[in-house]
Amino acid sequence: MIDIRNVTRSYGTFKALDDAVLSIREGEFFSLLGPSGCGKTTLLRMIAGFDNPTSGSILIDGQSMVGIPANRRPTNMVFQSYAIFPHLNVEQNVAYGLKRLKLEAAEERRRVDEALAMVSLSGLGKRGATELSGGQRQRVALARALVMRPKVLLLDEPLSALDKKLREQMQVELRRLQQAVGITFILVTHDQYEALAMSDRIAVMFGGRIAQVAAPKEIYQRPVNRQVADFLGGMNFIKAEMVEESGDAIVVDTHGFGRIRTERPRSTLRPGSATTVGIRPERLRVLWDDATASHEVAGTVVERHYFGEITHLIVDVPGLEKPLSVTETNDFGADDLPIGATIRLGYDPDALVAMAD
Length: 357
Prior knowledge:
By secondary structure, this protein is of the alpha+beta class. The protein folds into 2 domains: 2-226, Rossmann fold (3-Layer(aba) Sandwich), CATH 3.40.50.300; 234-355, CATH 2.40.50.100. The protein has helices spanning 40-48, 90-95, 105-118, 134-146, 164-181, 192-198, 216-221, 226-231, and strands at 2-11, 14-24, 29-33, 55-60, 63-64, 75-78, 152-156, 184-189, 201-206, 209-214, 236-246, 249-254, 258-263, 274-279, 285-286, 295-306, 310-316, 324-329, 342-347, 353-355. The protein is globular and about 75 Å long.
């Protein structure tokens, strides 16, 4: 549906976007994820037609967007601020963009009712914009965009102003809505959990460049480098040296974990090369009593942080430069482990991922 071909956007000597190459499929829920200033909103604005590339090209549904203004592109955008009109009621807000199409009154009414039903606002058409909750205002903004029947819906951090509970609820509703209408959604967010929960695929961006594009599970479990791994949730990083390679696997000698066989990273490594191995905190599990695992390490609890259903343990393991972070559910008493306790941690070798620094 969208082809981004070597797109660069420069402001003087500063490159807000640097040689971006990306293809987004029809009917996909795609997220642009990264910290503030990484270029994700710049890219979204260029897809929308609010800004133009310095070089490169953007195609939507096979058509070049060079010279095509925002109001003639098959896209519509939902902004972070929602930008609904306070002096209009709900149905007037939703119908606003339809006015330029000069539809018959009955057709306009039908499309407005259809859009309101999509976002679960049926029966609220006469309600004033100022009488709506934050979640309802967000739905009005969505309905106003969807009523135009775009091929691509662009979402610029539309949930950032909502409280945690409503935000999580709207994440589910947005995903359900996208699957129901079947059009391409592109979401800009700096919230990694939001991107993981909602997306078919994610592009992780830093400093104007795309670092990795993959499905949420692959990006989380097999990050291409340390920067991606560190941005998407907690990760324990362990220094290692590659000692052997065999097909799609490599053997690394780690500080603290010993010799481990793991999947070959995307980056080029040769025997003797220094690398980093990462393991997520939840992939380490406390071995209680006589429990055993195929691989384990022992360490001392130096910190404990209680978070209700889970506890984060900080465990000092001999040979490691930094203590390990371990996430454990509280079913078996992790929240009661005393500081200074010696514990054993089990793990699966496939939980360890070698990556570029």
